[in-house]
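Let us work through a complete example step by step.
Step 1: write down the sequence.
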Amino acid sequence: MGAIGPWQIVIILILALLLFGGGGKISSLMGDFAKGIKSFRKGLQEEDEKSLDKRSDEAVDVTPAEDKAKAE
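Step 2: predict the structure and record it as tokens.
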């Protein structure tokens, strides 16, 4: 019951071949994943910069004018 049979060994070998064979599929997948994360972060930063620019263009000066009576 606890022994590994020939079919289990074949399945393990096929999985190992798919994961590690053919020029580093895992490393290329992880590289693509990292590129996706970087582009996502860059997109978020660009949106933040655009929203800050938009808000600064729409900003209104609400500083109260100095009262001459208080100054005298």
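Step 3: interpret the result. The chain has a mean pLDDT of 77.
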